[in-house]
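#structure-requests
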Amino acid sequence: MGAVGVYGVLGVAASTNVPGARSNAANWTDSSGNFWLFGGSGYASNGTQGLLNDLWEFSPTTKEWTWMSGSSTEGATGTYGTLGVPAAANVPPGLAGAISWIDSAGNLWLFGGDGYASDGQEGLLNDLWEFNPTTKQWTWMSGSSKENPAGVYGTMGVPDAANIPGGRDLAVGWTDGNGNMWLLGGFGIDAAVTQGLLNDFWEFSPATKVWTWIGGSYLVGGQSIYGTLGMSAAANRPGGRSEAVRWTDNSGNFWLFGGYGYANYANETQGSLNDLWEFSPTTKEWTWISGSSTEGATGTYGTLGVPAAANVPPGLEGSVSWIDSSGSLWLGGGQFNALWKFSPTTKQWTWMSGSSTANATGVYGTLGVPAAANVPGARSYAVSWIDSGGNLWLFGGLGTDSSGAGGNLNDLWRYQP
């Protein structure tokens, strides 16, 4: 807990290198199977906690980290350069709660977050960045270099060069089969310059560099329209939320689970959600698949390792997720350390590992040695990756260590399904 980063030499891998403890970082997996990590809220090299803009690469083969870009201290402001022009000096600011994608060319994309803009002021951001792993250069692609910009929505369904989502953090994003990027919600700024939970839904084309407002409200607090469980409809939509998790399945459909937000904004109540949704980019319709249509739902765990129609995770915020080779959806963390699997075929959840009680401590065992008793402590806002063998890797987050103490972590775990 609270470990500082060991940066080594920029661009040089070493067994002693390690990112500092952090939460709400951004992450990618490249075409070679290497893992990438950017920023978050945590500890750099000097032991002071703050917003980070360091970029790291991890090789699952050598198990070594490489510091690739950014500062080794917290609180860095962004160097934006010229819109659309890559440069060695360009770098995003220190930030947390951004969303990330990787395109078909292997470039890393980063949007928004809570961070320090070009004027050094902290706020919600809507800047979009691209990083080329070959040239090692960042390019500012879209959005403002200043904090707290409002959204410009234009006409729903119509792309326009003037369109841009407002500043926000803790949103979710997907990439479709055409390489377009999709963005939903978060805590941010709407068209009326009001801050709150959003449910606006956007598509970005890397080819045209243009945003399109697809659905949801242009104002904060859009409520969920659940419709009928298991049935898609044009009117269905998730409500305003942040800290949700997402998957993209083998058919190219998007999945969304939980977070913190409104099940029904008309009630003016917020809480942890456990609703599961599926979105088809082809039909542009949402389907409510599982979970409760009210906030604050408790989990039904059932028997460890046994799927059941009644099983369902509790309302969770800041969990991690991945999809395995068979198309099953996996969910871990939040305020718990339980690991869940969902089958899109049977529509059933299975409690796979961890505790059904909150704030469970970690059991670390021996470094590098797998054991059935090993389990990470409860945590939120960690990052995760999948390697070429289908194994889950989990890093850091805000959680509980082996002594039961809470704080930012920098432990790295591997789970073999």
